[in-house]
Amino acid sequence: MSVRELVVLGTASQVPTRHRNHNGYLLRWDGEGILFDPGEGTQRQMLRAGVAAHDLNRICVTHFHGDHSLGLAGVIQRINLDQVPHEITAHYPRSGQRFFERLRYATAYRETVALTEAPVDTDGALAVTPAYTLDARRLSHPVESYGYRLTEPDGRRMLPDRLAAHGIKGPDVGRIQREGSLNGVALDEVSEVRRGQRFAFVMDTRLCAGVHALAEGCDLLVIESTFLDEDETLATDHGHLTAGQAARVARDAGVRHLVLTHFSQRYSDPEEFERQARAAGYEGELTVARDLTRVPVPKRR
């Protein structure tokens, strides 16, 4: 059975706390696993969450601040230690090439796995597979940063009442799906578009066009909310979002499930992030992330 879920490995910004590890997020998408922003301690968090190196197919780094990338060394070495049998692709800002190389070869180890580097230097598609298209968008942060968006191709939903009205049943249903028409009846007459699911990952950034483009129409949006609204000036100065800003983005983009994360250690009450998000007018499903939380991608409409 296919699984589509987000596994939260860490939710702290800048420094870990007693209850929050540095960043780390695994998206399970059917048979693939995409690891986003592996901060320090990610390898141990993977163990606690039941995530194996074999589960990984891609690594996506938004930018090269330590809380989003220091875990790369351990994760890459674990991939090689476990001799993962399939290729793994790493995406990261090209401007941080030297940082990626330093982390990849931080210590001596035996390379056993094909790790393909596919750095990002512009908006657009990074990978197109039968299951999804992976895109990147530039964000606004003191260092170059990109957000990521995964879009499933649209499919078609067959409509039983229309099939029955045209006398199409049994093997003929599969035939009209394959051939596009049957006995003068077009596929469009007995089916409708089933929109593919959409996921976006937005980390350290101010409000900018890239944030809105990534969030548009998402079923599941993972977005930083480092600060509470009363510290909006501080957030802007440091290249971050507040809970209210993140929620308004989700509200205006029609996001179905919003996941807030990347919290400053200055705040002791996580429920205040939810209160401010609701006060900003977001009415969909809302998760204030905690380490080891699992969030399913919402079912198709």
Q: What do you see in this structure?
A:
The chain is α/β, with parallel strands linked by helices. It contains ten helices and 18 strands. Helix 7 links the parallel strand 14 (198-202) and strand 15 (220-224). Helix 9 (243-253) crosses helix 10.
Set down the secondary structure blueprint:
Blueprint: E1 4-10, E2 24-29, E3 32-36, H1 42-49, E4 58-60, H2 66-69, H3 72-81, E5 88-91, H4 97-104, E6 115-117, E7 124-128, E8 133-138, E9 146-151, E10 155-158, H5 160-165, H6 171-179, E11 181-182, E12 185-186, E13 191-194, E14 198-202, H7 209-215, E15 220-224, H8 232-238, H9 243-253, E16 257-261, H10 271-279, E17 285-288, E18 294-296
Parallel strand pairs: 3-4, 4-5, 5-6, 14-15, 15-16, 16-17
Antiparallel strand pairs: 1-2, 1-18, 2-3, 7-8, 8-9, 9-14, 10-13, 11-12
Descriptive labels:
seven-stranded mixed sheet; alpha/beta; 301 residues; 26% strand; 10 helices
Gross morphology: globular
Low-confidence stretches: none
Give the CA-CA distance, first to last residue.
19 Å
Largest sheet: 7 strands, mixed
Helix content class: 25-40%
How large is the count of helical segments? 10
Please report which band the strand proportion falls in: under 5%, 5-15%, 15-25%, 25-35%, 35-45% or over 45%.
25-35%
Summarize model confidence as the mean pLDDT: 96
What structural class is derived from the secondary structure elements? alpha/beta
